[in-house]
Design a protein that fits this description.
- The protein is 22% helix and 20% strand.
- It has 144 residues and is α/β, with parallel strands linked by helices.
- It has a single domain, classed as Aminopeptidase (3-Layer(aba) Sandwich), CATH 3.40.630.
- A 6-stranded mixed sheet has the order 1-2-3-4-5-8, covered by helices on one side.
- The protein is globular and about 40 Å long.
Length: 144
Amino acid sequence: MKLLEKSSYSKLIEPLNRVTINNLFARSVIEHSVSGKVYADNCDNPKTYYVIHPYGMSPLYGDSRNKKFHDNYRAYAFNLNKTREKYEWMQAFATDWDVVLNELFKDCIIKSSDTIENTENGTIEYTDQLQIQSRQVPKNQGEK
């Protein structure tokens, strides 16, 4: 995952226009209406990208077969490099991401229906739309 320069956000306009779910949070960042961040697999030709809106809504789009991105995203989700400063609520499009995310987080996913209040560190909540909420993990957890 590489932090994309704001001047390169325009590379994602066309792929984002093909997304068939609500993508207003991502578009507002890509179109520079709000200040956010975009991480991509490749800065010159992004195929997999994660858009971070200042409210924390963070859509994940693109090629779900990108193994290197998977590993980097997992480390990012668990904040292993201490780069994330606030909560993010990841939403993945399209459904091919469901299998990938289930595999990436299989050892720490809890279904939101199985918890009354999720206040523990290192948990990933799973809903039908596979929204992931990651919290900082205690040392040695979240590592593959």
